[in-house]
Amino acid sequence: xxxxxxxxxxxxxxxxxxxxxxxxxxxxxxxxxxxxxxxxxxxxxxxxxxxxxxxxxxxxxxxxxxxxxxxxxxxxxxxxxxxxxxxxxxxxxxxxxxxxxxxxxxxxxxxxxxxxxxxxxxxxxxxxxxxxxxxxxxxxxxxxxxxxxxxxxxxxxxxxxxxxxxxxxxxxxxxxxxxxxxxxxxxxxxxxxxxxxxxxxxxxxxxxxxxxxxxxxxxxxxxxxxxxxxxxxxxxxxxxxxxxxxxxxxxxxxxxxxxxxxxxxxxxxxxxxxxxxxxxxxxxxxxxxxxxxxxxxxxxxxxxxxxxxxxxxxxxxxxxxxxxxxxxxxxxxxxxxxxxxxxxxxxxxxxxxxxxxxxxxxxxxxxxxxxxxxxxxxxxxxxxxxxxxxxxxxxxxxxxxxxxxxxxxxxxxxxxxxxxxxxxxxxxxxxxxxxxxxxxxxxxxxxxxxxxxxxxxxxxxxxxxxxxxxxxxxxxxxxxxxxxxxxxxxxxxxxxxxxxxxxxxxxxxxxxxxxxxxxxxxxxxxxxxxxxxxxxxxxxxxxxxxxxxxxxxxxxxxxxxxxxxxxxxxx
Amino acid sequence: xxxxxxxxxxxxxxxxxxxxxxxxxxxxxxxxxxxxxxxxxxxxxxxxxxxxxxxxxxxxxxxxxxxxxxxxxxxxxxxxxxxxxxxxxxxxxxxxxxxxxxxxxxxxxxxxxxxxxxxxxxxxxxxxxxxxxxxxxxxxxxxxxxxxxxxxxxxxxxxxxxxxxxxxxxxxxxxxxxxxxxxxxxxxxxxxxxxxxxxxxxxxxxxxxxxxxxxxxxxxxxxxxxxxxxxxxxxxxxxxxxxxxxxxxxxxxxxxxxxxxxxxxxxx
Lengths: 571, 268
Fold this sequence. Notes:
The complex is a heterodimer.
Chain A: H1 2-25, H2 39-74, H3 77-111, H4 113-122, H5 124-147, H6 157-186, H7 197-203, H8 206-210, H9 215-244, H10 248-269, H11 272-286, H12 290-295, H13 300-326, E1 328-329, E2 335-337, H14 338-357, H15 364-379, E3 389-391, H16 392-411, H17 439-466, E4 468-470, H18 477-502, E5 507-509, E6 513-514, H19 525-553, H20 560-563, E7 569-570
Antiparallel strand pairs in A: 1-4, 2-3, 4-7, 5-6
Helix pairs in contact in A: 1-3, 2-3, 2-6, 2-9, 2-19, 3-4, 3-5, 3-19, 4-5, 5-6, 6-9, 9-10, 9-11, 9-18, 9-19, 13-16, 13-17, 13-18, 14-15, 14-16, 14-17, 16-17, 18-19
Chain B: H1 2-30, H2 35-55, H3 65-89, H4 95-112, H5 114-142, H6 164-174, H7 198-201, H8 204-212, E1 217-219, H9 235-238, H10 241-252, E2 264-266
Helix pairs in contact in B: 1-2, 4-5, 6-10, 8-10
């Protein structure tokens, strides 16, 4: 694996330097015409692939260090094994990140030479110095972290974890740095005084260009998204390994790993709608015309599809909790206050109305939300009301009913039209129900989904305190749920990546550098879906291959000492 | 036994799903939801039924070896097909509509760039070359003393001499003003005021000031902090003076008193 990584790096370095030299010596080189797909789609596909690999190598180490620390703190070797297995896959995919990054540069330079040069000029320090240095630093730390895993045990474990934390700090800084030019393309720094945007950008400092409107929201959105992604890919690794396990001990371990991966993925996923909302809010604050373009114009059906995907992801993640609960002996005795069920049933209506009356950034809605969340806890302590309880299974079934309702609200559009310009009464909501398509209703749906998921995890927590988990005995269908989650999350990332790029409309840099090529239009959702699916499959195939090579084929069977630490029946 | 009981459960829940779905459709019909929403509500009911069927489904048998691999491949194929079909079934925006719009919006900007100038020269050279070829063809077929008639050519850009109000209406469409402002009963109305009577409420100079410096005026009723200054201040950078003049002329021509356009208020 070491030789493979080195070879890939050498090939990449030679390739980049060769192309850069050739490009530098042929001024005004005409753009290449990418066959079949076209230039824009070629850049899109390669960039999306690179982002998926990059998201994993930035998200997984966060997951890994947390797992390693938990193992160290609780003296539990299975966490250490989990961390090591995920970092093994990360190392392989790190090379793929570099490889697709290099490919992205080739394709971008070849297809959009003028614009690439323009962008590099404006962010020269970032592209030529800061980013490469950070990447090299991250490479050194990652490989040191990985190869010192076995030698830094016992008393040295703390230092190893510190190295992992350093890896994450450098990774996060790298992400923030490269998000500068990316977000700049969406929201270039606003002109100051009487200067036009073009004049201002010519004189703006690098910091002015980096710290633009959407920079920090994009940083946060990607950071949380990467953790989500890392968690679900860990779930995918676990599912593959569970399916290929030959012994009960192996199955018990990978069942546990799948559960941990899913829990981290879902935990971060719950923050993701709000991070996305923050990013959209800043985009709209930068230019209010972006909002209707996304929600009511060409991109409206992309958001319809996003609603469907998020609904499916929440349904699947809660279904996984359901299957996990079913393998806990004694779960039948677990009960929860009936007021939680009442709040869950009323939440979409109450929060929808509250947000209509007090839209963000007004704060009163948060007080109502707080009361709704705290109310069941308070009421369940009142004598006489204490006994109003429902079983865990009933609560989860009510929850599923409300997940379907929340999905329905999230997915209800103002009209089934690709742009409001084509809206007619035959495809629009009746005027009395127009509120269903507005942000208050969507926010209420998002909060209901998140609240329900938290309730389900609370129930799970109660169940494991009272019952016994039969690790390895989970329904085999759960492994398909884990695979479904990873696939759907990747697909949604591809979809939303396209949306973020398309909000620039027919500009390379919004309102600043127009795209004069014939491909500057918004592609149809159907066309986009084909390419997003293609990218997802390619990424999935590479990740699957990496998992099989590093874990299934490349590793010796776990020693008995490790297996003994994983009880088949454990709390 | 377990299979029989599951089959019963599937039947029961599917029937329940259909009943709820039909009930939703009837309610939606009575409350004036268009058919497409009625279908959507029915599908949600069926999704609910599917979820509850899955909740009580018996545990799946373990798959191993090639069977597991085959199941995985089929699963991926199904997911891919489902997502592509889902995205394709939704209404699609026709890129051809946008291509024409982009061409119009970027035409003047493109002409300003070196690339645009070069393209224009190439196009002109091609046109001259074709005309020369046509003339020489005519000469050779008619003889040297034949009278050659060359049709007068008109530039496509000649259309710019047309009605300024019509050009302003074009700008209304191209700049997508309709996304935030309702006009002739169409377009958004939540983000910005209806514009049908704006010509009676603002002068040409005031309209121009509002477009160039959006914070200079606000509409009555759009008083909340997050409503103020919502109109993008980008048009002075994006539009050419003749485009702004045309848009202003179009807006000044909107004088439908039957529509209650909110009163503009000058900001300090």
